[in-house]
Amino acid sequence: MSHIAYRGIHTSLYSSLPAEAIQHVEQAIWLRSVGQMKDARAVFENELKPLLDAPVLVIERADLELEAGRWGEAWRILDARLASAKEAGEDLDTAAHRLIALTRAMLGTRHRGDVVSSFSEIKRTQHWLRNLPITEYTDIHASCIRRYVLSYLFTRLQSNYENPDAEHLPTDPNGETVPASKVPWSGLGQLRRHLSSRGMFHEAAAVFRVELNRTALEQREPVVEEFLLAIETGFPSSNGKDFVEATVRLQRVDTYIELQDITHAVEEISRSEAAFNRYCDHFDVKSRDSAPHMQALEERKLSCIQDPFERLRRAEELSGRLELAGSSRTGACLSVAAELALAFHKVTSEREYLEKYFDFQSRLEKHDERVSEDIADLVLHHNALIPVTVASLVNREKLLEWIDGFLRQYPHFSAPRILASLYRSQSLLLTNLRRAEEASIAFQKAVELDSFQPWHGEWAHLRNATAAFSIDGAIGPLRPGSEANDQGEPFYWPWRSSMGDEDESKETTLKLLWTWSLDDVVTGHLSFEDFSRMTEMKTKDISSIIFIPGAEVDPLQEDGYDRICSWLMNPPQEHRNRRLFCLVMLRNARQLFFSANLLWHHRLREVKQLLEFYETLPQLIRETFPGFQGYWLGVVALSHVALLEVESDLTTRKPLEQLQEAQTYNELALAEFRRTKDRAMVALHQRVGAQICMLTISRLRQLMQLPLAGLEAIYDEAAQSSTNVKSSLTPTEVAKEIGSLRAIGLEKIKETDEILTDSELHASWSDGLNGVRHRQSITAFNTSAYTVQIAMHFLLVGEGEPSQETITSLWGWVQKYKARSLARTIGVRASDPPDLVKTILANPEARPLYEKMKQLEDRILNADLTARFDLRRELDAHTEAMKRQHPLLRQLIDLREATPFEASDIITIEKRAGAPVVLVDWFLLQPYLQGETGKLLLFTARAGFQPTMDLLTTKLQDIGTWCQRFLVPEEWKDFREENLNTIEARTAFQDMLGGLIAPLGHRTERNEVLVLCPSSVLHLLPLHALSIVTPDPEDADDSITDGLIHRNPVVYTHSHSLLRSCYSATELARHSLASMSAQFLSGISKQEIFYYDKEREIQFDYSAGRASIEELARLFKSTPLLDAGASKYSFLSVAAQSRMLHLHTHCNWNSSDPLDHHVEFPRSISPSGGRPVEALPARELFDVRLLPGTHVNMIACQGGLAEVKLGDEVMGLVPALLYAGASSTVSTLWCIKDADGAVFAKHFFHSFLQQCALGMKKSASSPVRPEENDDSLEGYPIRSITFVNLARAVRAAAIKMDKGQCQPLYRWAGYVLHGFWQFPLSGEDIKWLQG
Prior knowledge:
The protein contains 55 helices and 21 strands. By secondary structure, it is of the alpha/beta class.
């Protein structure tokens, strides 16, 4: 190679090297140019190893890694050398050291987000070269300028750095001061010309690259032609002329692609390839495919392929080859492939393309993190997943986990705007998951990091924009000049901090209107007269002009608003997009204002004008915010539905027209949202479509109830208005039409439920209180309860009694309705049932699938947070396959996901209960139209039989009346429940509300276990205290009236899915060695046994409860927890070791915050002015972990109350205890008397111990069943088990306390059992108890 002239661009530094080393450096540069990167590295690591600290070798070695796309490795080389130079006291102001520092700073902005080093080096270089004429530039100066330009651009991109003076290096040839009007970066062209004139074409070509990218698109052609001419006339062929020409033409290809001039791009690719081949021919290069230049050309060719299918195929094939080759173009190619795959998925809806998209994104992330180590790109590429994730409602939690992982893994990464984009992504995801407080915190961090960001166009123009293509005929990106972007920042930038916040967005818009109007008056774009008409109204308040305060429109105000709109529609050219977008935001804020104030007609008018305006918007705005059109189409439909749902009469022509328009716009909106794959909006508008069907059914029903004359008049009016309606409808036709609408509506609502259920399932992995809150929040936002209500309305449409199929469907929807969030959160935390796991492992088909699931879970647990995204997606796919492929695995996943309770679950529970079980559900079906009345439904379900349904006759107002009179009166004399402590209350309870359980008389049998699942306000009622009439088994003509709990063991649950979780906790306890270790605690200290309330002048006696605790502890041979031994700390300590916890204490219920629902414990020191107690609130119980199968008795006032929201989502002490691991609780519905609580506890535990004794006798006389003595399942040894029926114990206590079934409710009816009623005891426990 000695005959070849130097190819390097830092030859002035060669003087520091011996001749042989220079040859080796040139060899490495040559190998780099033809793509033999490993061989080039070998030269540095072997032949040049003794000289690696030489600045020129450090620079060339780093350039080698940079050419290979390994930014991180290049940074480490430079950083290490710079550190050693500082330590050795070398002169860091030499040109070579400056170049090392500048390159390190440039790389550091991307690799480490280090903009501080860039700030310093930019300022240092600016000061160094400010007065240096171009004529004095060496090759090192030229390289410094290249790195300086890129450092400046990267720093601007990643921070709020603004330094216009920095854009005027190099200075002109004479070193004169640069005038303010000079075009930024124009000195680059002068430097390139000067280098060319000196024959330094390699150096000039390197400068040319940054020069061209800093030149406006329309001005690039003359620059390219000028340099090509200089190369042709002044560059010797033997010195790599063809190579330089090839690189220049490659830069020209990028320009053509950005201009969407594909024809010229293809031609220039051919010329560049031909020039490179001439170069290779000249130097006898055989293997050319690995050359960076050829790889770059192959990547550019993708942009020129017109057939999108072929383009995707080629991108997929090329990205694979480039990955294997370790090419620097791998990231760009994978990015193109990902964009194409996603576009295909949006058009075709084929999952294959979505999976390809995620695969490309995963490979791109690995490339960013492990190969290029461009961490800035890593964040930006991951942010690209956000729109896909939000639209699909899946993977949101996975992305949040990735963001958390990134912030932990890269604490040194400090680029403000990259971090701001990350926090904005986090805020968007959290907002989408309805976690408002967390979203606000993330958003504020973004605002602090990114207070201002100038528009930077494409990413520093370092990578060509991908050419537009269309699968479905959509228009691609704009050609420059067609609808040019505004000057400066993006058109939407003023709203960047207020997107999604209605009030902030409105405030931003109003401020801009005022500022711009004043600016336009000054510049003459707006006359003062027009300005006055726009703003000088009665209030002189621009806000009141736009957001009218009442239902009636003031013509003067509307004129002012129209003038504002007209002014914004005719903006100065340089502000066109920003002003038009402001008008969009203004009109959108106005329609939202109308919505909030229920001004539906105004909203309709505004939105329709928005839709007309949308068609005239610049393409850039429409492409940047593609969701506007679908959203506004949907708003029209929603507004019509809102108007119709408050109409009591739907028979006139106007409702018909509204229904037709609502349906038209809703279908258009649906088509748009399906096209964009926005599942959340598809779910919403499928539900809107179902509402329209239901409203149409309601209209048909109303029409058929009209007298004939009225009906004919309506038909005549419709015909005259050309409304598409038949001239007559027969009852048969109406029934057929209603049936068709019912079927369509049900299909729509089922899709809505499927999407929203999927959304809720993937909304959170959190356990504890946060998990419950997150799930309840998103369930409330999705209004899933309303979805169920609509579905049930459809099912009940039709004449006559509902069919059994309909009743079964109704029962299924009821199970979906109730307490879904709590059950799901328990499922996240719960262990897999050992018996089920054992059965799965014994099944040859199920076992491998289960084991793969466990392996994936272990891999996720051990992986870094940023590495879990793909693993979790793999686990999701595997879980879905498990549910499809085997019923045992489906059963396991159902438990984990708390899927709605099914009939098969009853069989499982009844088998363990050892007695017939009947599940009882109440459901309040709200009225659909104004003026209608709701329906109270009662469902029963038992193993082996179809569910039943009864329409109850009890009036909802009677429930409220009884509660207000006896349960929660506004006034009382001594204590709130004093009216409840009367026979009158019990009589009224039966007379007014007895119908709530009346059907159970013939739906259930005596002694069957009844699991009561109330709804809404019914959770307050002691339903077990109502009497029931049943046939006398000894006399068919007679009947027997019994209190429900006298007739049957009764258990309560907030949902049957929750019951299944409690059952699973009991099953886990069967396989636990933990003994019962019963603990009895009195939360009332000795000093408060006799408490005198000075304010009410009442003496309270709590001695009975304390005595009860002492007696029960004696019976169970344990130490009573009293006074100092009954502290909160003591309770939490024993709670972790006991499966039987009995508390007799005070409890405080605060309905305004159910998380403050708490029990009290004594403490030795009183707070200032307070009682000597400390509280254990429900919120803290979510952090407590009880032993599996624990039972908790709370003999405390109102311990069993819970906040019940829409969808029977509950919160309070009982839900918190069940989450903590309890499988059952006994609590109270109201404030009880201390002595009554002691009596209940006495009878409850008397029955408990009797059952223990009976169990011991049975164990002695009967051999242990094999399955109960099977310890083959490792980790779950099982001992002889006896079960205590807690429902029977509660029933026994109630019967004892309700002597003659005539005692006041207050004394005995407030005690309720929640959860699974079978309490497991080992044989050792029973023997110990019996002593």
